[in-house]
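Reply to thread "Modeling small-molecule complexes from scratch"

Following up on the discussion above, here's a worked example others can learn from. I took a protein sequence and the SMILES for adenosine-5'-triphosphate and predicted the complex. Inputs first:
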Amino acid sequence: MNVFKLLSRSSKPPQSTPTQRLPSSGAAANPQLFGHDTIEKPIPESNTSRKRKRGQNAVEPPTTLPADLDFFAEYTRKAAPKHEDDASHKSKCDDETTSGTAGADKEVDFATKYDEDECKRVLRSHKLKIVVLEDFVPREEKTEKEKRKEAKKRKRDKEKGRKVEKPKNTKRQLYPQPLTSFSQLRSRYQISRRLAENLKEQGYTMTTEIQLAAFPLLMGDNRGDAGAGHDASGQEFGGEVDLLAVAPTGSGKTIAFLVPILNALLSEGNTNSGGRKAGLRAIVIAPTKELASQIVNEARKLSAGTGIKAALMKKGMEVVETCGDETHEDVSASLKGSDEDEDADALGSDDNTKSSQPQRIRKRSDIVKAGILVATPLALLNALKQGDRVAELPNIRHLVLDEADVLLDPLFREQTLSIWNACTSPVLRVGLWSATMGSNIEALATTTLNTRWASLSSHAIPRAPLIRLVVGLKDTAIPNITHQLTYAATEQGKLIGLRQLLHPTAIPSNSTATSLRPPFLVFTQTIPRAIALHAELLYDIPPEAGGSSRIAVLHAELSSSARETIMTRFRRGEIWVLITTDLLARGVDFRGLNGVVNYDVPNSAAAYVHRVGRTGRAGREGGVAVTFYTQEDIPYIKNVANVIHASQKLRGNPVGQGDETGIQQWLLDSLPTPSKRDKQNLKTRGVEARRSVKDKDGKAKGRISTKSGYERRVEDRKRGAVEASKRRKTQPIERANASESEFEGFGE
Ligand SMILES: Nc1ncnc2c1ncn2[C@@H]1O[C@H](COP(=O)(O)OP(=O)(O)OP(=O)(O)O)[C@@H](O)[C@H]1O
């Protein structure tokens, strides 16, 4: 660490080497993370649905095909259009949209049809694995006699040292037809023209891995031999599946669940009335207000002009109709209770009805009319509560739990399950989405589905299967970013390290260390620590470069409008360094974020995966994730080291041969393995030494400073001595005043 160079900080804004590729330096050429080396060529599908045999030469797409429809041209040659700030692209899109509308019937059907082997190859090359967790098809139970016979055989084999046959894994794998480009959505699933145009308008051309498989599973392949028995494509389910989807951060899960929902709502009809007549039919739950608001924005962009509306749940909004004054009072009371909750408060807006009003008269216009509602669990639950009971939502057909593992974590579990159970429709389709998913979530999902099925009065409708779709290695960080695990020894060391990142000129030119250019996020363990770090770094950016306005702190204790303003300023590039807590660790999409700094080590491996996944989104290369650790973190850091190790392997980097970045084998071998209990403690409480301490006034203090403990003690003593001397000087006066006031007091 070059402390001396650090002292001579440059006032120039950080410079990057011209060769450095950064996520902020433009749109990603290819949003996919895997399968780059196996570019699969589709066969333009003729009306006869001719299948391509394995090994047969691929049919070249017609040469007259417009460049932007040639999705299978070499990835490197074709850069995806920038989504934002690209006026020329927009006008091009507009042109194409117009011409597309005019020549509706001339649209090129570019849907592909692979045979089963090819489906397998394509899905495997993109690291996709799809299994039917439960198809709920009744199977013949083995008789007690048969079970005893099998047990005896296993025992005999064991005694004789023979290989014991394990009960066979009955989980069936699926190989649906991969959907490799957005244009196929229209030719294959006949999605509305407007929805297709909106997707195009957003610059989406090539599908990401999760979209490649989720669209066929959720929209049902209605071409060819759908319903023709149990083939490996899952066509027999016709899109009626409950889905557990695990895909890397930034891999486009939002689009993957929104498009099938929009398509379903549109095909259900009633759109002439602006989608309003049919009312609320889909709910998306997200753990934070920031994520909920991002999802609703995405839904609005995709649904523009389709008649389907998307709304963000706000305090005071109603989702169920109620009648009678008594109920009004009850609900007002339950809403009042929500004031105590920080997140429900954060969802408040200008149009909120104050819950402190003794009697709130509800108008019909208060009731959500949108087709899709996006909410945090508590905000929605508060709106559903009618006294002790939770109102039912029988019309909801689609329920999405985004960041399902956190929504079903003990913190939110009760709220989330209450909402799930409130959606009483027998044809409710549920989707659980996240980049990380423990096996306990799978078990919980299956149990919930079983309980709901058992409670149904009629079982006339066939039960939907539960399917698990995994992209890449489960619970692993994305492979397209550089991880750097830095030992900083002490708290002061971390601060010095962070300052060095803020001033990359301090890094010697011959160093192989990764440099980090703004914009970046800095994560701390607690809110007081985020505030303290912000105070410490406030004047680190020179005035010529924007000074303190370039650095900000965002946490759950700020008002809703302050949070919104900071998010907007960060997205616009006005803020360069945003210090935050795990509030922004999940789901939030800042497209051009160059990196993430874990100033405090995350509380779990999953938290690491999500935090670092704020960079390198949609396949962007060059993101950097720096994690500082100190002596206190050593018992737990192996969690993080293992994630980095797995991600390096996924990327194809040999472990132990790297430069200063990544994980060296010796480090991996020498770190202690945390016990299950340690992991649990860390998850719930964080690193003990970093938990908030109270200052003299009882306020929580983050204790972040470059000063050593000794220096702080000396300062404290000095301050104490000065205060004591001041007190001594003022004491006689105070005493005199006190006796006067005492005298006055006696008079009363
Ligand atoms: N097919 C695509 N082509 C290009 N960009 C895409 C595509 N699909 C999604 N994106 C972009 O990728 C970014 C990340 O998408 P999204 O927020 O849905 O990721 P995610 O998988 O939900 O991530 P997280 O797990 O962090 O929540 C967004 O900016 C989105 O616009």
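What I'd highlight from this example: Residues 182-269+278-319+366-471 form a domain with the Rossmann fold fold (CATH 3.40.50.300). The radius of gyration is 29 Å. Questions welcome below.
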